[in-house]
Amino acid sequence: MSYTVKLVAGLIGTALLLTFVGGLSYSISKGFAGFYGGLPFMLIVIGVGAMAVYDFWDECVRKK
């Protein structure tokens, strides 16, 4: 696969993942659980998001 296709596909996939889990975390924190009820899930989402961004950088951006 070419570098450009890999870069664009990885960027779109990572952006969709971060948008989905970020919105889910936001709705849980603003909904019935409240901020402190949604805090553990928010921390998990931040960790997963950081891992997803690092994996995108490692697989698509960094030249090996």
Structure description:
88% of the residues lie in helices and 0% in strands. The chain contains two helices and no strands. It has helices at residues 3-30, 34-61. The longest helix is centred in the first third of the chain and has 28 residues, at 3-30. The chain starts with a helix and ends with a helix.
- Radius of gyration over alpha carbons? 15 Å
Distance between the termini: 15 Å
Structural class: mainly alpha
> Which parts are unreliable, with pLDDT below 50 for 5 consecutive residues or more?
none
Number of separate strands? 0
Average pLDDT reading: 92
Order of helices and strands: HH
Helices, by number, come to: 2
**Beta-strand percent range:** under 5%
Helix fraction by DSSP (H/I, runs of at least 4) = over 70%
Shape: elongated
Summary, kept brief:
With about 60 residues, the protein is mostly helical.
Topology summary:
Layout: H1 3-30, H2 34-61
Keywords:
64 residues; mainly alpha
